[in-house]
Amino acid sequence: MKIDLPPLKPRALAVRTIPDASDELARAFGLPTGRRALGIITATSDDALYAALDQGTKASPADVVYAKSFYAGANYPSGPFSGECIGVYAGRDPAEIDAALDACLAYLETDAWFYAATTAEDPDRPVAFFPHVIASVGRYLAPLADIPVGSPLAYLIAPPLESVVGLDAACKAGRVQVAKWFGPPSETNFGGGYLAGELPACEAAARAFTAAILDVCAAPLARRSTRGAGETIARSFVRPGGARPAGGEGGAPGRFQALATGERFAEKPDHLTHLVDDASLVQKTHPRIVARGKLDLLQSAVLDAQVAADADGARGLVGELGEILELARTLVGAEVTGREAPPPRLFGMASDELRDATHHTYELYGVPFMYPDVRQGPVVAKLSLARGIAREAELAVIAAFPPARGAVTAPPARADLAHALNRISSAIYLLACRYVAGLYEGSRRPLGPVRGWKPPEQKKPEKKA
Questions:
Q1: Are strands 153-158 and 191-197 parallel, antiparallel or unpaired?
Q2: In degrees, to the nearest 5, what angle opens at C-alpha 202 toward C-alphas 73 and 262?
Q3: Is the pLDDT of residue 236 over 50?
């Protein structure tokens, strides 16, 4: 997640590998048996390096066996290559170390950034803070935060006072838990914590953390409630640069509230939309809003296929598409309200029966795994388009509801929605095969051969002479 502020990008200062550590050094590090190859790195930022070290464990079997911050921070290093932190990987061979270091260095360059917040008191001396979100933690940070590998994590660090008020705002912005608190001052005179939760909640927490720190920077001596979470935001708040929040003047709270920052509005801004209610406005690019758009598009495509089937006289197909349309509408309600979607059942078939039928269309209908063709007419074309949109909707739901816990291969948080959309895709394909097979009254079997893959014919055993 990137923030619209000037980035303070970390730099690696020194990198070295040891292909086979000495017995004494291995004993000092407490290296596991068989792990004698080492990779050592120092960088200008400790928290950025910790996040990057974790990234290396996702690219390699190598483990982080040592990581320490230096006292007083990067402004007071012990040497030109010391920086603020040191990290050490241990692996079974140099190739594992190289893979881990490559991923670590790339992450430092492209993702693990601090940001600069301009202060009202001294614009030339910004506040540096780390509103970092990791979508899927690796083997290094997971045990430190006491969460499973693959879980989302908000890694939030700031100077002492800013870290406290920012962490409070972050906790109020979404359903997150403090997995670990770093009480100020740390070795480098910062503070903050690890926050665990679903990915959208971690991102909302990081944005609220940012908003609270910007509020402190705008008026550090104003004794007022911290902005950025659930508190009422006074309209007198001026952001760095003189911009005021939308919603007019005065101290009265607005009816509408932004989920990410807690900012209130007297009128709903056009560029925001409701996630659930007036107190949860989000950007229209929010993953759940994108998924809702795909569900709307799916309904339109199914309806379009219904119209084509009706014009063709395939009344049975019209009814079966109506079942899919009703299920799609049910999924919309389930997503918005949080209710679990019912197990999909279409055309009298349960979920497993639908999937099995799509794998045996040649045996059931004499139709191979079909490639849509122009000769099959508008009904098949529209069914094929609806099936593709159903697949897009499934992917959008998976992106909007990533696994709440566990590895990246774990089911999405809304597995009910993803499963139902998967079966809608299968069901639409099944209807196309049945239409091509001429099983609907009023429909005609399309001209020409049906092209596609079909199971190989079984050879009959030769008779012995």
A1: antiparallel
A2: 100
A3: no
E strands, 401-443, where? none
Interstrand relation of 176-182 and 127-134 (parallel, antiparallel or unpaired): unpaired
Q: For residue 195, what are the β-bridge partners?
A: 154, 178
Report the pLDDT value the prediction gives residue 409, as an integer from 0 to 100: 75
pTM: 0.54
Alpha-carbon dihedral sign for residues 369, 375, 376, 381: positive
**How is residue 81 written in tokens?**
């290559």
Q: In what order do the strands lie in the sheet with 85-91?
A: 12-18, 37-43, 85-91, 63-69
Tokens of 423: 């079966």
Look-up of token digits 């099944």: 430
Query: pLDDT tens-digit profile of 109-151?
Result: 999 999 999 887 788 889 999 999 999 999 999 999 999 999 9
Separation of alpha carbons 375 and 398, rounded Å: 35
The angle, 0 to 180 degrees and rounded to 10, between the axes of the packed helices 287-311 and 415-436 is: 20
* Chain centroid offset of residue 126 CA: 30
| Coil, helix or strand at residue 282 | strand
Give the side-chain half-sphere CA count within 13 A for 138.
19
Is the backbone peptide bond immediately before 185 cis, with ω within 30 degrees of 0?
A: yes
